[in-house]
Amino acid sequence: MPVTITHADIADLCCGSVFLATGGGGDPYVSQILVEQALKKHGAVDLVPLADVPDDAFVVAIGEVGAPTVSLEQLPIGTECLDAVDRFEAWVGKKITHIVSFEVGGANSVIPLIAAAAKKIPLIDGDGMGRALPEAQMMTFAIEGVRPTPAVAVDYAGGATYFDTADTLLYERQIRNIAMAMGGMVFTAEHPMSAEEARRAIVPGTISFALEVGRTLTRHYGNAKHVEAPLRALFDRSDYGILKHLYTGKIVDINRKIVGGFDVGEATIESVGGNAPAMKLSIKNEFLVATVDGRVVASVPDLITMVDHETSSPINSERIHYGQRVTVFGIGCPPHYRSERALKVVAPRAFGFDFDFVPIEKL
Amino acid sequence: MRVGIDVGGTHTDAVVLDGQDVITSTKVLTSQNIKDGVVNALDEILTASGIAHNEIDAVMIGTTQFTNAVIQRRDLAPTAIIRVALPSGELVPPMIDWPDDIAAELGRHVYMIHGGRTYDGFPIAPLSDDEIDKVIDDIRAKGIRLVAISAVFSPSDPTQEEYVAARVRARFPEARVTPSHSIGRMGLLERENAALLNASLLPLAEKVVNSFAAALQERRIECPFYISQNDGTLMSAEFAAEFPALTFASGPTNSLRGASLLTQLNDAVVVDIGGTTSDIGVLQDGFPRQSNIAIEVGGVRTNFRMPDIQAIGLGGGSLVRNDGATIGPQSVGYRLVTDGMVFGGDTLTATDVAVAAGYADIGDKRKVAALDASMVETAIAKIHDIIDNGIDQMKSSREPVPVILVGGGAVLVSRSLGSASEIRRPEHSGVANAIGAANAQVGSEAERIVSYRRIPRETVLNEMTAELTSGLVQAGADPDTVRIADIEETAISYMADESTRIRVKLVGDLSIAKRRNS
Q1: Where is average pLDDT lowest: A243-257, A346-360, B379-393, B464-478?
Q2: Whole-angstrom Cα distance, residue A235 to residue A248?
Q3: B66 domain-assigned
């Protein structure tokens, strides 16, 4: 049975999405305003479980590619993703039956709802990552062999670029450069999927799960110590399987620089008052690896999430600053990322680290 | 000789400083017309110090009048906003997230026109004179004289905002304009909010600044006077009349700066312990550490640089419960002087246990003589624990730091704190705000998004420093004292070409202050 998402759900969905974004994703403030407006205007959106997607479905992924910081200055028109859907349908000559978010992280969890609401197209309860990751080839769509195109990117001036390439790495390169050329941010309709492909490639249940995470954080607003138990209960019975408290302490160093168009850096957290060794977090937009005393305690593709210790609000990597008191959680990744094929593109070695992935439950 | 004045909602404080020494200080009631309160304060300090009106080199004024106007929704004039951004931002119009009560004060006179630039300077849409003029005529027809203007990426390229502003002034000479790049940083919604609040405060600003000028004139004080702004630096009276919103956080800023002057400490944690809460702020290099989050003023999101202040629920009136194990956050507040046990009431407060322990001499200590000693000990330990934890969360290094205690509740801290390398309790801390105002410097900051691959970092820094320096010297700074106070660089994630957001802040002493010191 489909459930519906209404404007009243969006604040919690945004909060939960930032939690699952593992430091990436950007501030969803403007997206939240836009989506709440769209849902008030057009009504609720049906959220369809992946298992209920019919055999004749034609699924397309929607999302924002580029620099979230730029979008805080250059606001979207607000109809780009709807425009992308219209242009996609006109170009391909086929009606989209289901929309899916390409990542459940920050703004991208909610942006597809604008098109879904306006076009009365149901949203699939799932996404292409189960978290946030920086590049297209890291999506489960790509890992499961879904062709990235035909794809349409719509920019803030209402213009569009059409893509027709079979190679995901090439697509990533093209879309990244188009995003740059078109003001730093574009909205895409991409990765068209048949029902069979969708069932294979989509990480199921992540939108409703993000909503549940957000609701839990809202309901238990306060110290991370008190939120940990309800969060653990939630993750234990999900596909993520496990949520572990990794560290509580104070940011004593944050060091970031840009390498190849990404934030690359390291944060150091020290325990307050205790003598425990410090935690180090490696960052490439998202948190990739957490070590304590040189020992890896969690690594990509498992999720590493930082929250403000006093309020349990999830913290975006761009907002880390000296002296913050934080709690870091490690979370198992969705099963999609545990295969050999997936680990080739999302494990620590894919990011240049010289060690193999060890699942968080074995650390 | 410098005079510092703090014009609050209730009290107007004034101090006379000779170099760094406090000669005299006073606290009088703020008057309805502002001017009389300032005149009264001036009379008190001139009489007490015996100095003549012509011995004063500069007057520095801090005021919460404009913050209070926004919070209380009063004296805000109807204001129009022209946003230059279409087609971008169409569904996120100006004032979209404002509380209705304050939006109603300004009226939702929202205009969106085509234009703006991308992060790298490319035009989003061409400007149209016809479109601009139609908007101006409509604003004029409505009888609105205050206009805020925002354009996409105007902090990187202000030319479009300036063009529209010039057209407004030419076509509608009675209008007063606040272009957003002149007041805010990156972040269109927040910057445009700041411009709107500022424009709506312009009539009040004129009145307040004129009141200051009239008060000084009445006492024949003819030296220049300055208004303190959010970051602890000064602006001229003319500038303040144009940018009243830049005073929004000057209260806590001046308090921190005052604590720095009174102790001669440049790096310390300042704890202002009041009746209900303690405000903890951090001095870095003599200036307040700034907050990183979007700051709401009266429910409106802005991105002003404001001091990072953490309020914790502990003050002199905090309730002591649970055999001393729980202190606050509930408080008797201003009723401490009637409800507290040492004042004859029957509510056990933090002040009562401090008196019982012999650490403070307030009220009648016999009233708390019968309190259980172990309860008192538990409560005293808990109070120190709460303050210690609050300081620890705020301080900028692992090592213990100097701590400055100000405010009426400072007596609650009587023992050493693990987070504190030393504890200072300066004299005159009741007028720290006025002292902070008198001790301010001039400062200026700028922000750009750049690609260091296209322009070398050094070139960017040199350009920005040169522009800021000339602005500062114009604002009255001595060129020899101008220094870089802060450089902040933020990578723009997900974006190639190594784009970086760089923010540079310069400060300098006022020429006048330096002449005195040398």
Answers
A1: A243-257
A2: 19
A3: yes
Selection from A355, A248, A257 nearest residue B491 by Cα? A257
Q: Is residue A181 domain-shared with residue A240, that is, in the same domain?
A: no
pLDDT tens, A26-36?
778 889 999 99
User: What integer best gives the mean pLDDT of chain A?
Assistant: 90
Question: How far apart are the C-alpha atoms of A235 and A219, rounded to whole Å?
Answer: 16
Instruction: Check whether B512 has a pLDDT greater than 70.
Output: no
Q: What's the token pair of residue B491?
A: 């990578």
Least Cα distance to A82 among A60, A105, A102 occurs for A60
- pLDDT at position B499: 75
As a whole number, the mean pLDDT across chain B is 88
Question: Which residues in A lie closer than 8 A to residue B394 (C-beta atoms)?
Answer: 323
Inter-residue contact A111 to A102 (CB < 8 Å): no
Q: What is the CATH number of the domain that holds A181?
A: 3.40.1610.10
Q: What is the pLDDT of residues B368-411, one digit of tens each?
A: 999 999 999 999 999 999 999 889 877 755 679 999 998 878 88
Give the separation between CA A31 and CA B300, rounded to whole angstroms. 18
- Omega before A277 within 30 of 0, i.e. cis: no
Residue range(s) defining the domain that contains residue B390: 264-426
Q: Are A119 and A112 in contact (CB under 8 A)?
A: no
Contact assessment for residue B434 and residue B5, using Cβ atoms and an 8 Å cutoff: yes
Residues B230, B233: Cα–Cα separation, whole Å: 7
Mutation for testing the A interface, residue in B112, B150, B192, B494 having most A CBs under 10 Å:
B494
Dump pLDDT digits (tens) for A200-210.
999 999 999 99
Q: Per the CB < 8 Å rule, is B91 touching A67?
A: no
For residue B456, being part of any structural domain is answered with yes
Q: How confident is the model over A10-22, as pLDDT tens digits?
A: 999 999 999 999 9
Q: Which two tokens stand for residue A299?
A: 């690594």
pLDDT digits (tens, 9 = 90+) for A319-360: 787 667 789 999 999 999 999 999 999 999 999 999 999 999
Residues of A in contact with B91 (CB under 8 A): 34, 37, 76-79
Judged against a pLDDT cut of 60, whether residue B313 lies above it is answered with: yes
Q: How would you classify the pairing of strands A279-284 and B295-297?
A: unpaired
Helices and strands (DSSP H and E) totals, chain B: 15, 23
Tell me the pLDDT tens digit for each residue of B228-268.
Answer: 888 778 888 999 999 999 998 888 888 898 999 889 998 89
Whether residue A236 is found in the same domain as residue A341: yes
- The radius of gyration computed from the CA coordinates of chain B, to the nearest angstrom, equals 25
Name residue A57's amino acid: A
Domain match, B397 and B497 both: no
pLDDT above 70: percentage of residues in chain B: 95
Q: HSE (CB half, 13 Å, CA atoms) of A203?
A: 30
Query: So what's the pLDDT on residue A323?
Result: 66
In A, which residues are within 8 Å of B116 by CB distance?
Answer: 74
* Number of domains observed in the structure of chain A: 2
Its sign, for the CA torsion B365, B370, B371, B374, is positive
- Domain assignment present for B461: yes
CB-CB under 8 Å, B91 with A37: yes
Between the CA of residue A106 and those of A30, A289, B69, B274, what are the distances in Å? 11, 20, 36, 39
Helix (H, G, I), strand (E, B) or coil at B7: strand
Q: Is the dihedral of CA B233, B64, B291, B492 positive or negative?
A: negative
- Quickly count: other Cβ atoms within 10 Å of residue B49's Cβ: 18
Residue B361 CB: number of other CB atoms within 10 A? 10
B247 vs B93: CA distance, rounded Å: 26
Q: Which domain holds residue A54?
A: 3-204
**What separation in angstroms does the CA of B197 have from each of A258, B71, B179, B183, B247?**
36, 11, 12, 10, 12
Same domain, A195 and A241: no
Does B288 contact chain A (CB < 8 Å)?
no
